[in-house]
Design goal:
The chain has 477 residues and is α/β, with parallel strands linked by helices. It has 3 domains: 180 residues, FAD/NAD(P)-binding domain (3-Layer(bba) Sandwich); 115 residues, FAD/NAD(P)-binding domain; 121 residues, FAD/NAD-linked reductase, C-terminal dimerisation domain (Enolase-like, domain 1, 2-Layer Sandwich). Helix content is 34%, strand content 25%. The protein contains 16 helices and 23 strands. The strands form 6 sheets. Strands 1, 2, 3, 4, 5, 6 and 18 form a 7-stranded mixed β-sheet that branches. It has a 5-stranded antiparallel β-sheet with strand order 19-20-23-22-21, sandwiched between helices. The chain is globular, with a radius of gyration of 24 Å.
Length: 477
C-alpha cells in the first residue's frame, strides 16, 4: 500500500521503517524514479538532504543558465537591429533586474517540483543519509531506513580545481556566476565544454572582455569537430579571445586582478583579468554516501552501473550524473525510469540504448548533435557517407543573419539509413530534433528528403544534404 505522508509528519515520527525502494536524491532523475515506482504500486521513500529542492537542472543548471543566455541574446539582437535600419540609444543592462527575472523563473520551477515531491504518492524525507550496509541507510538525525531496493540519483557537484594556484587566487564557478551582482570588466574562462562556452558568451554579450583557455585542440570535446571549429570562428568574430591546445602552468592573484600562465604553440602566454571562471567540469556527488559499506563499486566518485542501471550490488541502481556516462538531464530521466521499471519487473529487464543520444550547446550559433559523429562512425568501422550544407547560403537563415553554420548528415553507404546529424546555427537545438525523430524511425536519406518542408523555414535546409546522400546511394546501386 502506498503511503501518503507529509514531509514534517514523516520526519517527526520515523525511527526505522522499511520501504520497497528508497530513492536517494530528489532532482530530475530521483523524482522520475520515484514517480515511476509509486505508479507501479511500490512503497517508496525519497531522501533529499540538500538545502534547496529541485536538482541541478532547475536550480543551477539548465533552466537558470538558459534564462541568462536568453537575456544576452535579446541584448545582442537589439544591438544588431541597426542592420535593418532600426536604431536605438545605448543598450544598457540592469544586472540586478536581469538576475531578479531569472530568480523569479527558477523559484516558480522549483516551487512546482517541490509540490510534486511533497504531494507525490511516496514518502518525502528531508534528511541526508549514508549506507551502513547494503540494505540500510543511517540518517543524520539518528533514524534508519531499510529497503529492498535503492536508486541512487544524487547528481554532481563542481569538480575541485586542478589548476595550480587557482584556489589561492580565488575563482568563480557556475554556481557563483548565477548569483553575481557585479559584472567583471574582464574574465578568463578555463574550459571549452558546454558550460564554459555558454557562460563565456553570456559575459561577452553583456560587455565583459573574455579570454577562453582550453586544454584540448578544439572546443566541445566529443562533439563534431567541424561544428566546434565553426563555433570558434563565430565566437572570435564576436570578439572573444580563444586559446586552444594549451597547458596551464599556474595562476596567481595580482594587485589588479588575477593572472594565468600557460603554454601555447611552443611559447608561454600570460593573461590577466579581473576574474577567472572555472568551467572544467563536475564530479559525481557520492562522497558522503559511504558506498563501500553497501558494496557499491565506483571509479573515483562515479558509480559503476551497467545498461540496466544496476550497480555492482544487484538490488542497488543508479541514474543521472552520479553514474553517467552522459551528464544530460533527459538521459538522467530515461535512466531513472528504466531503473524503476527494472525494479518493478525483474523478469523483463530493459537496457539503455544511447543510439539516439542528442547533445545541445546553447551558444549562438547553437551547436546540436544527434546519433553518430564522423569520428564515432570511423571508430566503429562503419562505411558511411556524409553531406553538409552551409547556412549562409540558405534563405531563411540568411534573413536571420547567419554568417557561420551548417547542417550535416551521415548515412550508411549501402542502405542510406541515417546515422547521425549535426547542426550549427540559429535554433539548432530545435532543428536537431527532426533528425532525432528520423533516426528513431530508422529513416533513410531518401525518406527524409521526401518529407514536405514549408518554405521558407530553417527546417527545410535538412532536405539539401538528405537529397545529396539519397542521390549518392542510388548512384552506387
Amino acid at each position: 500500500m502506498i503511503a501518503f505522508v507529509s514531509v514534517d509528519r514523516e520526519n517527526a515520527g520515523m525511527s526505522s521503517e522499511h520501504f520497497d525502494t528508497v530513492v536517494i536524491g530528489a532532482g530530475s532523475a530521483g523524482y522520475a524514479a520515484a514517480r515511476t515506482l509509486s505508479a507501479g504500486g511500490a512503497k517508496v521513500a525519497v531522501l533529499e538532504g540538500g538545502r534547496e529542492v529541485g536538482g541541478l537542472c532547475i536550480l543551477r543548471g539548465c533552466m537558470p543558465t538558459k534564462a541568462l543566455l536568453h537575456a544576452a541574446e535579446l541584448r545582442q539582437a537589439i544591438r544588431q537591429a541597426e542592420d535593418w535600419g532600426i536604431t536605438t540609444g545605448e543598450v544598457k543592462t540592469d544586472l540586478a533586474r536581469l538576475f531578479a527575472k531569472k530568480d523569479a523563473l527558477i523559484a516558480e520551477f522549483a516551487g512546482y517540483r517541490r509540490q510534486q515531491l511533497e504531494r507525490g504518492k511516496f514518502t518525502f524525507i528531508r534528511r541526508n543519509g549514508h549506507f551502513t550496509d547494503a540494505h540500510t541507510l543511517a540518517l543524520e538525525d539518528g533514524h534508519h531506513l531499510t529497503a529492498t531496493h535503492f536508486v541512487i540519483a544524487t547528481g554532481s557537484v563542481i569538480a575541485p580545481p586542478v589548476v595550480p594556484g587557482l584556489t589561492e587566487a580565488c575563482y568563480l564557478t557556475s554556481d557563483d556566476a548565477l548569483a553575481l551582482r557585479h559584472l567583471p570588466k574582464s574574465l578568463i574562462v578555463l574550459g571549452g565544454g558546454a558550460v564554459a562556452v555558454e557562460f563565456a558568451q553570456f559575459f561577452l554579450r553583456l560587455g565583459t572582455r573574455v579570454t577562453l583557455v582550453q586544454r584540448g585542440h578544439h572546443l566541445l570535446r566529443g562533439l563534431d569537430e567541424d561544428a566546434a571549429r565553426e563555433l570558434e570562428k563565430a565566437l572570435r568574430r564576436e570578439g572573444m579571445t580563444i586559446y586552444t591546445g594549451t597547458k596551464i602552468l599556474g595562476t596567481e592573484a595580482t594587485p589588479t586582478g588575477k593572472q594565468i600562465r600557460f603554454e601555447h604553440e611552443a611559447g608561454t602566454v600570460t593573461v590577466e583579468a579581473e576574474e577567472i571562471f572555472y568551467g572544467l567540469g563536475r564530479t559525481p556527488n557520492t562522497a558522503s554516501l559511504c558506498l563501500p559499506a553497501a558494496g557499491v563499486s565506483t571509479h573515483g566518485h562515479r558509480i559503476i552501473a551497467d545498461l540496466q542501471q544496476r550497480t555492482s550490488v544487484e538490488h542497488i541502481f543508479a541514474a543521472g550524473d552520479c553514474c553517467g556516462p552522459h551528464e544530460i538531464v533527459h538521459i538522467a530521466i530515461l535512466q531513472a525510469e528504466l531503473a524503476a521499471r527494472n525494479i518493478l519487473r525483474p523478469g523483463r529487464a530493459e537496457e539503455m540504448d544511447y543510439r539516439l543520444l542528442t547533445t545541445i550547446v546553447f551558444s549562438d550559433p547553437a551547436v546540436a548533435q544527434t546519433g553518430l559523429t564522423e569520428h564515432e562512425a570511423e571508430t566503429r568501422g562503419i562505411d558511411f557517407i556524409k553531406a553538409s550544407y552551409p547556412l549562409n547560403d540558405h534563405g531563411k537563415s540568411m534573413i536571420l543573419g547567419a554568417q557561420e553554420g551548417f547542417v550535416k548528415l551521415l548515412a550508411d553507404r549501402r542502405t542510406g539509413e541515417l546515422l547521425g546529424g549535426t547542426c550549427v546555427g540559429p535554433q539548432g537545438g530545435e532543428l536537431i530534433h527532426e533528425i532525432t525523430v528520423a533516426l528513431s524511425r530508422r529513416m533513410t536519406a531518401a525518406e527524409l528528403a521526401a518529407v514536405p518542408h514549408y518554405h521558407p523555414t530553417l527546417a527545410e535546409i535538412w532536405t539539401y544534404p538528405a537529397e545529396e546522400l539519397a542521390d549518392a546511394v542510388a548512384a552506387a546501386k
